[in-house]
Specification:
By secondary structure, the chain is of the alpha/beta class. 39% of the residues lie in helices and 17% in strands. The chain contains 16 helices and 17 strands. It is globular and about 80 Å long. The N and C termini lie far apart (69 Å).
Length: 450
Amino acid sequence: MGLTGIQILQMLPKTNCKECGFPTCLAFAMKVAAGQADIATCPHVSEEVKEKISEASAPPIRTIKLGSGDHIVTIGGETVLFRHEKRFDNPPPVGILLNTSMSPEEIAERIAKFKKYRWERVGVELRPEVMALEDNTHDQEAFVSLTKKIRQEVPEAVLVLMSKEKDLLAKGAEACGEHKALLYAATMENYKEMAELAKGTGFPLAVRGNSIGEAARIAEELLKMGLKDLVLDTGPQGVRELYEDQVIMRRAAIKKRYKPLGFPSITFPYRFTDNIVLEYMIASVLVAKYAGMIVLSDFRGDLLFPLLVERMNIFTDPQRPLVVEEGIYPLNGPDENAPVLVTCNFALTYFIVSGEIEGSRVPSWLLIKDTEGLSVLTAWAAGKFGADTIAEFVKKCGIAEKVKHRKLIIPGYLAGIKGELEEELPDWEIIIGPREASGLPAFLKEWKAA
């Protein structure tokens, strides 16, 4: 278990110097214990104490960072079994497989898919992050060439280098430069030499066992050798075993603090089926239970998009609603005669409303009022989307300078505040819009500024 605030306080100098940003050492210790402050911000504790507290306060599942520069992905770092207990922190990156036996045309096609599949949903970019490069021809030159090609053409891709040969992986790692790839994999037969490679490169090392027990034994040996950044592949023989292994690993790490299984996992759904639709179904289960990384055999847009949407939904903090920034949003190229609509900044509301407006092809101004992520009726009930707050926003946002008319369309659910809003905005005519966003296209096509 992690250290308590009092236990951490006993290791601090107790000078109350305030250099950490907190008024007392006790306040700082409590924040460190809660995971809301970093022990490293105290300038007066020794490196030994910092390491001891950091180790004791670390998440039960090791946090691993891969990539370089602006393209870093984080896996692991989870602290709970169920999302409602707190939140899931690091969504599993999704990747595509390439290998050295593929033709240049097929490799080019997969690179194109990786670059192509980008979607925006409620203000979040959905995209794959990983390219797994597999040596299946024992051709060092081909493997290094493929690694360099990916680094040059797809610098945002996080790499997994897959080979049984240490020397070949070493050359691939060298071709990565400063990019921190995942080395796959250490087995019971080669873990000592793979450990040397991981230490030399500073890259995280994947472990592959023939069972969850063997993976734990290899991880335990690697921990004794001083390696901490590990990713586990338990080598399941079927889908049921794959699922059970993920659950066992998470429970062992969180409930029992069992260190050999306290690492994120890497999974390969394509190993269990030749049917790509079933492969994505398996992947969808792994997103929820509890894969650290998912490598797919190929990308298909109609299958990848719902998988990424599922991932986004599960790894959204349930205690913090998605929001968009307050302001004026021009849709379809509006001019001074375009209609003006107002709604809340709950992301789902914004994207539904803006989508309907864009679909109508009617140039419009959409005013987004900050309601702290609450929906229209919830924000109204909470006093964050009433006549006074809407009027204040309309006055200060600058929309009056962009249009000649003075007509404001409010959501149909707020019809009851029409009179009050007219009192707050005497120069504006308040128009009640449809109750549902689906009614906006027909409503806007009949709207007239004059």
